[in-house]
Amino acid sequence: MPLIPEEPQIHESAQGPRVTPAASRAAQTPRPVPGPRPAAAPRPGRPGPAARPAPPAQRAAQAAPAAGPATTAPSVSTAVPQIQLIPASAEGALDAAEEAVDLLLDTGRAPGDILVLTTGELHPWAAHELSFGEAAYWAQHDAADDVFYADAAQVERAAARPVVVFAANGGSAEAAASALPVALARAGALLVVCGDRQQINSVLGAGV
């Protein structure tokens, strides 16, 4: 299914899957996202080997609106998710995914709504939390109250969330092609894919 260029933005729609090219990674202007815009929150730093990284909740706590009940579990839409493509190299895909997460949180998305998958190197937070054991790591996934980062190879184990951010940051093309349709199935409202435009388009064109 070929991509039709449009204005760069992340939309949530129930009109059926479509691929919308996002702005070039070279551009530094924020990509607009629908929804209310609370105060921006800082992105989590990449910790050194001796420091325990701050969980995504500390970033999300600043991005969430001050009023209203806390979200304890994400609500997953039954509508067919929209697909948003952010062109990026394998080296830049993880940074692009982080920017997408920040933008979603800044515009009112609940942290527990978001699942981030990586095809190559793990996100630093996931790598560090796994050092304490898989049981504790997956317990955070099951709590569903924060952004969760996981290896795309384990997407079958991950529960559905309204938004899935897929970072094609390495690994084999075959593994990414296998994980991407499952990631789409896990996304309730929106799938954001950060990676090579031609590769992603060929996979989604055959699998959607």
Outline the fold blueprint.
Elements: E1 19-21, H1 56-63, E2 82-87, H2 93-106, E3 114-118, H3 124-130, H4 134-143, E4 148-151, E5 161-167, H5 173-186, E6 187-195, H6 197-207
Parallel strand pairs: 1-2, 2-6, 3-4, 3-5, 5-6
N- and C-termini, Cα separation = 8 Å
User: Rough shape?
Assistant: globular
pLDDT < 50 stretches: 1-8, 13-30, 32-52, 57-77
Strand content: 15-25%
List the helices and strands in order. Answer: EHEHEHHEEHEH
Query: What is the mean predicted local confidence, pLDDT?
Result: 74
Compute the number of strand runs.
Answer: 6
Radius of gyration from the CA trace? 16 Å
Major sheet description: 6 strands, parallel
Structural class: alpha/beta
For the biggest β-sheet, the strand order reads 1-2-6-5-3-4
How many individual helices?
Answer: 6
Helicity, in percent? 25-40%
Characterise the protein shown here.
The protein is of the alpha/beta class and 208 residues long. Helix content is 31%, strand content 16%. The protein contains six helices and six strands, in the order βαβαβααββαβα. The chain has a six-stranded parallel sheet, with helices on both faces. Helix 5 (173-186) packs across helix 6 (197-207). The radius of gyration is 16 Å and the shape is globular. The N and C termini lie close together (8 Å). Residues 1-8, 13-30, 32-52 and 57-77 have low confidence and may be disordered.
